[in-house]
Amino acid sequence: MASTKTPTLAHRAQYVALRALIGTLRLAGWRTAGAIGGAIGRLGYSPLGIRRALVEEHLRRCFPEFDEARVREVARASYAHLARVTLEAALLAGDGAQAVFDRFEPCTDWPVVEAALAEGKGVCMVTGHFGNWELAGSYVGARPKAMGSGLEAIVRAQSNPLFENYINRTREELGMIVVPDAEAVRRTPRALKNGLAVAFVMDQGVIGLASTFVPFFGRLAKTPRGPAVFALRFQSPVVFAAAIRQPSGKYKLTLERVPVQPTGDREYDVDMIVAAYTATLERFVRATPEQYFWQHRRWKHAQPEGTSWPPARTVVAAAD
Fold first, then answer.
1. Of the candidates 292, 125, 137, which has an alpha carbon nearest to the alpha carbon of residue 200?
2. Tens of pLDDT, residues 218-272
3. Which pTM value belongs to this model?
4. Which pairing describes strands 238-245 and 251-258: parallel, antiparallel, or unpaired?
5. Which residues share a beta bridge with 243?
6. CB 74 within 8 A of CB 54
7. Alpha helix positions (H), 218-265
């Protein structure tokens, strides 16, 4: 889906520079390109110091057991990882499904997705800005395409419309159906009714997006509730996905079913599902913190007055 935003001169200059960099890195090969990306990313930590204080503060608060040397080590590695995954996403264009599969170790969790799809009620797939979320979507999108179904990916608009169009074309080439977040409410119900999987990146609170505050590293964080709402409404399974970089340089796609246990109290049930997939993300981040997007202001939104956890549950009296 092409962006309707008119690119500025600055957008065009950025895009030309990016395409030139991508062309050069293609000649270098996937592994070398990743290493170059990591080196570029480390410059963001030092000497440039882009959001360095924010990243280190996040790590201190989320991992109080870390000493300062460990905080700096993980922070530096997170910059390298972010640049690496950004370039890897840009390098996907024109590679095809097999090239994507070749960048993964064997996926032993794939039966989780097959079992969820077999229920015939669609699947709400959730992930966070962890590991290589773009490559995870490409892998999942390419596999269902071979099975005659597909993956609808809910995406946010990017600041540069030329790069946005480039990324969206790549997503579509690999089996994803790109859905702007503004159209999610209209299009997700149809996709789930048709038995498709719908992917959501759910760890950034956005103004105007239906959200709830749930625990994330011990603090309440504004978190999108759309996947939980759709899962309850259509009785769709929820599956958490994460593509985690391995020592081999390849990724491992991990897939887990997220519990959905309706009690009859809709608001309470939504909150508990959001908390469950957020807790799953936190568990993975704790294991591999350098692969998380700490540069985002995850706790910038003030929670509404009176917000507490766990939420109060409405008890419905039984009829006489």
1. 125
2. 999 999 999 999 999 999 999 999 999 999 889 999 999 999 989 999 999 999 9
3. 0.91
4. antiparallel
5. 253
6. no
7. 226-234
